[in-house]
Amino acid sequence: MIQLELSLFGGFAASVNSESITQFRTDKMWALLAYLALNGERPFRRESLATLLWSEWPDDAARRNLRQTLHRLRQLLDELAPGLGDDLLTMTRQTVQLNGTTVSLDVAQPIVLLAKGELLLSLEWPSEAEPFITEGMLLAKESNSSDLISWGQKLAGEATG
What burial class does residue 140 get, using C-beta atoms within 10 Å of its C-beta: 0-12 exposed, 13-18 middle, 19+ buried? Predict the structure, then answer.
């Protein structure tokens, strides 16, 4: 099985079967891929994604940019491994969804472990992530899932920022 690996800590990096991907045409392309990966297998309305990534653009232009970015992302994935674009992205006229079973994400497992109130001591966290990890551990102990989800999104934003 083909595996897409995304790393968000210390800057964005992507690879397919351990081969680095460097052909992202724009920052928005990898940002879209990272955002979809961080949110699991949840479908997103195209309008929401367009507004998120191109908030300063008129709605029509933002939707057109999203369409082009999705097309280019699917092409890039298919160039790396035939059929990967279709395996990874599920798109309808209204929604876009990532198939998370083919994606490995460096922040996903720690967030899930924290959500269960656990933390693997063997994980090595970058020093800049330490305040966020502490915050996440406190939220996990309080079992406040909506705050924990917000924390995970904030952590992901700091990692890509």
Answer: buried
